[in-house]
Amino acid sequence: MTTASKAASSRLPVVVGAEHVLTDPQTLSVYAVDGRVPSVAVRPRSSDEVVEIVKYAASEKLALIPSGARTKLGIGLPPRRYDIALDMSQLDRIIAYDPGDLTLSIEAGVPLHKVEATLAEHRQFVPLFVPYFEQATVGGSLATGVDSPLRQFYGTGRDYVLGMEFVHGNGVHSKSGGNVVKNVTGYDLHKLMIGALGTLGVITRVNFKTFPFSGGSHGFLAAFDCCERASSMRNRIAQSALRPLTLEILSPRISELFLRPENTRAGEAAPPPDALSTRHWMLATAYVGNEKVLARYESDLRRLAAECGAANVSVLGDDTRPSVWGRLREALPILLDASPATTIIKIGILPSRMQEVIVKAAKMADANHLHWAAIARGLGVIYFALLPTERSQASQREVAAATSEILAAASTLGANVTIPWGPSEWKATLKIWGPGRNDFAQMQKVKKVFDPLGVFSPGRFIGGI
Predict the structure, then answer these.
(1) Helix-helix angle 227-239:291-307, to 10 degrees
(2) What's the confidence (pLDDT) of residue 3?
(3) Is 115 helix (H, G, I), strand (E, B) or coil?
(4) How crowded is the C-beta side of 27, counted as CA atoms within 13 Å?
(5) Which of 28, 198, 346, 457 is the most exposed place for a label (fewest CB within 10 A)?
(6) CATH second-level architecture of 337-429?
(7) CATH code for 216-329?
(8) CA 38 distance to own-chain centroid
């Protein structure tokens, strides 16, 4: 019996109650990270219980990985050690919501769909429309740092999270930021937690700025015969007075995947005929406003599309836009289901160079006999997916070669490149966190301050932190 297993029958039941300590092997298998299964899973119901669990893990030198709905546990490197799964899903209370002040305070385990339903009663929302929306929790979505199409207008969680409470490696419950929009107190340490993959601490509570719905929403889709023309329209929109909610370029295979019947979820209609083309590159943009504003957007976008050589355009209203934009939100899960060994490369680069990177990546994928698909967010984030037809050693060699070439080419253009998703058994041959970083020494120091004993997710983050 391991030390963590002994804890399940002694210390941890005292903290959370025996019914919230899980040791059954079949149950524990759902908490596996890259094939590594914990010895015990614990489901705390309060931040005080989280503190005690972390203190115990630190005192016994046990490795702990926090999780919510476990939809994104495949991101990152395999953990060096994994003793305790910290299931945060029972911290699911809405602490405070003030529609007049546009502020919301909630526990980390609250599901995103619950946040949406609560705010919708007051015609407000938080722009955390990330993949796996119907299952994902607030804490897990922030810890993994996955973005959404709404990044174009609202930014990422770092832009609308006002404050946070978290437990760091010494078992201390800390606070950062505040509860109101005009907060000027202290350092925004909570921003370090966003995208850190649970390697610095456990998020227990989050304070958000909320946003009001403003008028109706339309979607505009333009089809082009090449990536260059779609990119040209993106550039024209960026240089104009238009400020759309979303702005993305889709490769033809993305449309093909979106049109597959299996990618229509219950209650979601199929896209309208001719809205998406499996033979063209698509530019997709969404915008909001009153009837006059919507009409002006449509007029300007039609003009820009014609000037850039669009083969076809479609305008989707409030009733039909979700059929495409729901799939855009869930594009990463759709890509992961599209191949037995989907490997997704994330490239951050200046928007003006996106088309150059996509063309280079496509050539390298083709040279290695790999199917591929790409989504390029208007602000300069590209998700380039390699889609092998089988999970074989030959495919592994082809993916390793293609990713190495793409990372090298993108890096020469000043891009930041990582591989968030790939088969667990292939990760040893892939540069999951990209090339070495100049700020790695500083990152190690931050890790040492927040998690001096290496309790949280050891080995999963950049450089094996």
Answers:
(1) 140
(2) 62
(3) helix
(4) 12
(5) 28
(6) 2-Layer Sandwich (3.30)
(7) 3.30.70.3450
(8) 24
Residue 154's pLDDT is 96
> What per-residue confidence (pLDDT) applies to 52?
96
Amino acid at 197: L
Cβ atoms of 68 and 113 closer than 8 Å:
no
Crossing angle for the helix pair 227-239 and 354-367, to the nearest 10 degrees:
160
CA dist 366 and 228 (Å) reads 18
Q: Tell me the residue ranges of DSSP E strands in 243-280.
A: 246-250
Cα 96 to Cα 103: distance, rounded to the nearest angstrom:
8
Q: How many CB atoms lie within 10 A of CB 186?
A: 11
Same fold for the domain at 216-329 and the one at 337-429? yes
Instruction: Name the residue ranges covered by the structural domains of the chain.
Output: 1-213+436-465, 216-329, 337-429
Query: How far apart are alpha carbons 308 and 228 in whole angstroms?
Result: 10
> Which residue reads 């546990």 in tokens?
73
SS3 346: strand
Output the six-digit token pair for 446: 């931050």
Third-level CATH fold of 1-213+436-465: 3.30.465
The number of residues making up the chain comes to: 465
The three-state secondary structure class of 429 is helix
Long-range contacts formed by 5-14: CB under 8 A, 24+ apart: 5/39, 5/40, 7/40, 7/56, 7/60, 7/62, 7/84, 8/39, 8/40, 11/56, 12/40, 12/42, 12/53, 12/56
pLDDT computed for residue 341 by the predictor: 98
Rounded Cα distance, 464 and 458, in Å: 7
Beta bridge partners of 418: 346
Return the pLDDT at 151: 96
Write the DSSP assignment of 314-332 as a string of letters. EEE-TTTHHHHHHHHHTHH
Distances 314 to 236, 263, 268, 281, 337 between C-alpha atoms, Å? 18, 21, 19, 14, 27
Q: Which strands, in side-by-side order, build the sheet including 312-316?
A: 312-316, 216-224, 281-289, 246-250, 371-377, 381-387, 343-348, 416-421
Tally: H helices and E strands in the chain: 16, 19
Q: So what's the pLDDT on residue 7?
A: 61
Q: Which parts of the chain sit beneath pLDDT 50?
A: 266
CA 96, distance to chain mean position in Å, is: 25
- Type of residue at 286: A
